[in-house]
Amino acid sequence: MRCAVMGAGAWGTALANLLAENGHDTSIWCLEPDVAEAISHSAANPRFLPGVVLSARLRGTTDKESALDGAELVLFASPSHVLREVVSHARAWIVPGATAVVATKGIERHSFALMTEVIAEELPGHAVVALSGPSFAAEVANRQPTAVVAAAAEAAAAAFVQQSVSAPHFRVYSTDDVVGVELGGALKNVMAVAAGMSDGLGLGFNTRAALITRGLAEIMRLGIAMGAHPQTFAGLAGVGDLVLTCTGSLSRNRQVGLEIGKGATLPEVLAGRETVAEGVVTTESARELAAARGVEMPIVNAVHRVLFEHQPARQALAELMSRELRGERD
Fold it and tell me: What CATH number was assigned to the domain covering residues 186-321?
């Protein structure tokens, strides 16, 4: 079938390549002309996904209308802070009945909208599916096996995406817990920043494991308050993605925390970065959302103090360790 991917960063390119390798006629919309040129004429994206040979079936373009022409499946992989703008600008060329897939992980600032909610608001009448799980783009593009989950309120929409993107090295499960899948995918980036800070401070595996585990407890606490199924957080979009992003050397969010733990400031870390570390933006959204819901998230608050209130990372960790003693279960 005809597919379009909106966003030619590493993850968008990896997913577009996956669709093309599955035999779908796939176009990818690129913000940068050099990226579109490289994808179309060199079967490569050296700017965002270096070292990967892309499918000859994949076509890059900077023209949204051309990318979306006749597409039955439209996958959005733009950064969370520009997703609404990208969807809004694409709306005029999306055909009726097309299924929208969102591979972006985040929470919109101020509105607290999840990424599927952003798309549903901008594309009324279209089925919307969230795709999330432990999946570094470079490893997916190099056909290293992993498993993810497609989440949608309509079982038929989740099954359609499951069939469209599954491959021998890319196993897709389905679920109807959209809120749980989206929150797991968004909030794990904040916890990865925290884990990176711990590693940057030179602390050990014990500290990292404790942060990951209590981070999962915070994610579950907010998720359950928002109607998510607890079991989702024990799955691919929960603990699976959390462990990967908090421990993997390819994690941009962990890398941000690592450099801050070593003494760099946030502006210094972000200066000159072309790729987006969603955990930085999501920290602000998550803190505001948790406060609005009356949910306690001490690790999120600690990361916020370090990133935006100039608190030293070691002091933030000390405050986490000195909180009032309590039972493990809420």
Answer: 1.10.1040.10
